[in-house]
Every structure is written in structure tokens, then in C-alpha cells.
Fold:
Amino acid sequence: MPGQTRTMCAKRLEGFPSSNSTFWRQTSGAIPGRVNPTKGSGAGGGSAAVHSFQNFQASVSDAWDIDEPLTPTVTKSDEKVGGEGSTTVAGAKEDITPTHAHTQVVTRTVLPRVTPKRESPPKTVQSPDAEKDRLRCGKFEKVLSQSPVNIQELETLSWSGVPQSYRTRVWKMLCGYLPAGKSDLVLQRKREEYLGYVNQYFNNKDEDIHKDTFRQISIDVPRMSPLVSLFQQKCVQEMVERILYIWAIRHPASGYVQGINDLVTPFLMVFLQDFVESDVTRNPFQFDSLEESVRKDIEADSFWCMTKVLEGIQDNYTFAQPGIQVKIRQLEELLKRVDHQLHTHIVQHDVQYLQFSFRWMNNLLLRELPLTATIRLWDTYLAETEGFSKFHLYVCAAFLIRWKSDLLQKKDFQGILLFIQNVPTAKWNDKDISLLVAEAYRLKYTFADAPNHLPDCRIKTTL
Structure:
């Protein structure tokens, strides 16, 4: 049957021109998946060419050969097999070469698709100091949120320094000016009380009995903190004059003494800082730009807090200033015990302790330290029991020992005295003060609370 079909098709194609003899021929090579003809499958061998299953399987073995192109290229002209223009498909010998046999196949490596990662915002790495400050603020917040506030816990926490944002409230509590419980009414009453003192006494400043006092105050006020522009403003100087004059009138036993004017400056700066964003100790600020009510509150608060401090050291400013004289003798005895070499070096060059330590006791080291360092030092003084009256002595001793190597290099009276009176503390910060008070604390508990260690040099504590 297959042979007859091919014969009929050949007869019908005899009428076509020879140029189209390949019109119905296969133009490609072996097609994958199609049965390939084998030898002996001619026109008359249809019944004999019975393929076995194995031959069929072999003939279609390239069905999934994906490398074989579907359109092969004919490289030679087809040969005619048979006679008289007839074309026999099975008998034709075709030289068909697959395209990839002569063409270089370019292999493309497909890389895995990489999804770009979203860049997360850079994490802010906090410095150890910033983390420490944050934790410290949390402790203060916890203590101050109590009602009433535990003053003993507040003193312990404040000894190592008070964060700026809490300093105003903490200082008022440690001074005893602000009660530990509800305090709004107390503050209001104390502020009104101070305003009454101003109205009552300040208008009498030109009377003969008070004229000398006010004249001395007006001379000293422009001299305090010359490096801080705030205290050169007229409105600030007038405020300080009122504070000092009211205090002198209300404390006739001592009256006004030079040096008291310096003690009001730390309170003014701390209380003012609550209303100013920039650091008022370093940046200029116009005090009169504040509301009048705010200025009056700062003035009243400064007066009462300074009064609380002076209550513990008032004997420093009474007649002949006996408190300062006692402290100078104690400082000399203390240094003899803790650093005999430095003490001997000072005394051998005829330098007397009175010549340099009188100002330390009278001004509480305010003239020796930057204002920012003084504020940090007062954190400890306010938190320490009798900080201004007794602990200050050990701070002065630690302060003198701090410059031991520099003083030992000075070989004459003038060199030693000039250096002590102008110690290089302009760049001191909170860390320097922390080291200073730590050394003072060591001296206090080593020699004051255990005086029997050196009985021949025991410090007299008749304060």
C-alpha cells in the first residue's frame, strides 16, 4: 500500500518543471521524534519492511534532543535517484549537515537574579559617655518622681555630678530651699518674701548707716567673673547688688565681706540655664530679654540658696574671719601628713600657706577654676555632709597635691607663689573635678576618720 501511494504521487508530479523537482522534498534533516526510513524500504518492499519495536525506538531516540536544531541546513544539492525524473525518498542519498556542526555555539551563562537589598538607615552608635549620661538621667528621674523625694538617695546620686536638666531642682532641694514634697506654694511664698525685703530695705541703701556697705558692694560686683559676659551687663550687676545688700542687712553679725559676691554666681548661672538653650557660661546672652517675672524668680531663688550656703560657713566672714584662719592651719597640718615632701619644699622657700590658701577658703576656689568646673564641684559640695565647711578643706589639699610635680621644679619663693596663685586650670572639665573630689574623699576617710594613725600630727577639728 505505501508503495502504490508513492507511485501515484510520482506520476502526478511528472507535469511540473524540473526546476521545481524539489518542491515537495524535505528541506531539513532528520526531524526529532519522527520515524527515520531505513535501508530496504523501497517502493516494492512494503510488506518486508516491518520494523521491530527496537528499531522504532532507535529511530525516534532524538525526540528530546534539544541541541538539534529544527531547521537543518542543506550543504549539497540533492541527488536524483531513479529514472525519468522520478524521485524516490527512500533511495535518495542526502548529505544534510545540521547547522550546529559548522556553527560555533555560544553558551550563555545565566546568572541567578540578585534582588538588591534595601539600605537600612545607618544606626547611630552612641558613645560610652552618652550612654552613661542617659542611664544617669534615668536614675535622677526615678528619684525625683517620688513623693516625697528621698533626700538621702538624692545626695548619694548627686555626689558624682548632676545632669544639667535636673540641676536647678536638685540644687534647690539639697540647699533645703525646696521641700521634698509639694513645693509650689513654698516657692511662691519665699519669692514674695524676698520681694518684700527689697521693697523694705533697698530704698534705704543711701542712708549713712548703710552707705559704706552698698559702696563696697558696688565696687566688687563689676569685678566678679570678668570672663563671663553675662556679669558685665548692667541689669545683672544691679540684681547682684540687691541680693548682696539684702543679705548684708539681714546678717549684721558679719555684714558684707569681699568674696561673698562670688558665691552668688554659680546659682545665677544654674537657674538661668533653664530658660536658655545655649550654654550661658560660654555664649553671650541678654538677661533683660527674659520676662520680668522670670528675672525676679531667678533673683529670689539665688538669694535664698546663697543664704543656705552661707549659714554653714558664716564664721568665714565674721570679724577677723576666724573660720578661714582655722582652715588654713588645718590645711598645713593635713599636707604635712599626706605629702611631707611637698610641704617641706613649700616651707623651705619661705612660702606661707596664708599667702595662697586664704583666697581658696574665702572664695571656695571660684577664682582658681572655670565657672563650669565650679558648678560641677558644687554638685559634690551640696551632696556632701558639711561640704562647704569641712569637705572643702580636703579638696584644697588634693588641689595642692595635684600640682606637686610643677611646684617641685620651682626653686624660689617667687616661682612657687606665682604658680600657686595662677594654676593652669582654664581647660578643666567635669572629669578633672571628678578626679579631684575622689582624691579629696580618699584623704578625708584616710586621715580624718582615722586620726590615731599619726597622733603627733592630728588635725584639730574645732570648727
User: Anything to note?
Assistant: Residues 292-312 form the longest helix (21 residues).
